[in-house]
Design a protein that fits this description.
Blueprint (H helix, E strand, L loop, with lengths): L32 H11 L27 H12 L13 H6 L11 H12 L25 H11 L25 H14 L1 H8 L11 H12 L9
Helix pairs in contact: 1-4, 5-8, 7-8
């Protein structure tokens, strides 16, 4: 485990190993349309209400069947929802699906944030239908509600606190830890992630809470985000 000094404080003073962390919770189910996205639609009541998208609503231009009982009905729902994701590759949050889920574009209801994260994770994976879809391999579920990924959340925190501008720049590498600011390619992102992950969850929480940290504790929201990231098993990014 690396010892961090300077802005990221020096050394694991108590020498506590990573094994002291509680085991991470089981990973969330992968965001395939069948069954996860359909489950979210059902949980939100999208297909259950005659006022919304039930297939019995004759005024409905976006009909959905709740709790499909066969693959044909699942497929029909899948094709309907896919039509709401045009442009997801470049702007997932700008898709009609997400805008409506956020209560925009005249939509009368807003979905829970956890539901929106499932939709976004589904799009990040390329809209897989089920576990047999070509784009389903290595498709991970969203971070738990309130959680985070290293890319971009934890990297952004490290930059916003100035840790990478001085003490832990690649040039300085105080305590043997130095990462690149504003990475522009996947290889650099992954290198930053590996270096940070190797610090160890226990030491990262010590840092966040100012145990031996010369510049003080991180703010409460950041500490909560780091804790959730560690508890989730230090995930790299959506879909990985």
């Amino acid at each position: 485990m690396l010892a961090l000094g300077g802005c990221m404080p020096g050394g694991g003073a108590d020498g506590m190993p990573d094994a002291a962390l509680p085991p991470p919770p089981p990973p969330p189910p992968p965001p395939f349309f069948k069954p996860r996205v359909q489950e979210v639609l059902d949980e939100e009541g999208c297909a259950n209400s005659a006022m919304c998208h039930s297939d019995g609503n004759i005024r409905n231009t976006f009909p959905l069947t709740p709790m499909p009982e066969n693959d044909g009905v699942y497929r029909a729902n899948f094709e309907q929802v896919k039509e709401e994701t045009n442009g997801y590759e470049s702007d997932p949050e700008g898709t009609l699906l997400i805008r409506k889920a956020q209560g925009e574009d005249g939509h009368p209801y807003a979905a829970a944030n956890a539901s929106i994260q499932v939709f976004l994770a589904w799009m990040a994976c390329g809209l897989p239908y089920d576990e047999n879809s070509p784009n389903a391999e290595d498709c991970a579920g969203p971070a738990p509600d309130g959680g985070a990924y290293f890319r971009p959340d934890i990297q952004t925190d490290l930059e916003s606190y100035g840790c990478l501008a001085s003490c832990h720049s690649v040039q300085t590498s105080t305590g043997g830890y130095g990462v690149v600011v504003d990475p522009t390619d996947d290889a650099t992102w992954m290198e930053n992630y590996d270096k940070t992950k190797n610090v160890g969850g226990v030491r990262l929480l010590e840092i966040a809470n100012a145990t031996g940290h010369p510049t003080g504790a991180l703010d409460a929201d950041t500490v909560a985000r780091w804790t959730a990231w560690i508890d989730a098993g230090l995930p790299y990014a959506a879909g990985n």
